[in-house]
Amino acid sequence: MSDRSYSDGNWIDPTDAPCRLLVRLGPGDDPGPALALPAVAGLVLEVGEEAAVAAQIEAAHRAGRAAFLLDRPDLVRRLQADGVLLNRPGEVQAARGRLDRGELIGAVCGTTRHDAMVAGEDGADYVLFGSLGAPPPSGIDALVEQVAWWADVAVLPGVAAGRLSVPDIERLIEAGADFILPATDGDAGQLARLAVPFAAQAAGQQR
Hints:
8 strands; globular
């Protein structure tokens, strides 16, 4: 992420940063533990009460991190979020039509390479492989292969997601994931453990 801010549209440039964490938070979850971790680039927020999610967004921005709404492109501008993550990649084109280019769109593409390519053509700014809340649908080996393929053929950043172990994350970093979004169910201790490989990555780059 270097010294770029969350708001300049370039925070997801894969040439500018090592692999980083994205963290999904539920309505009313405290963003503090996630934002305290240097490896966290941004939050993916489920929308409940607008006031609560607005407070999460404000906390992310104070910490210099991005904030994306899950499946609510209609609220991005009103809540001053940085963009949206869509569970249905077929909705990218419609979302692109209502959002400015600086408001970033991600698409959950599961295990489907075709969906990822089409989402990029439709205006997505990043794509996500895997699952937001379950183990990788086709297993970790298939997810690693997808991430490596995307890193080789595409310019758009790729996110790997799912219930992942520390060794899984190490493999995904090595495969070229730009971001990883692990399922932690709001467990701050688990998130801290899963962030360890990112600290090791940073230490290795400083040598």
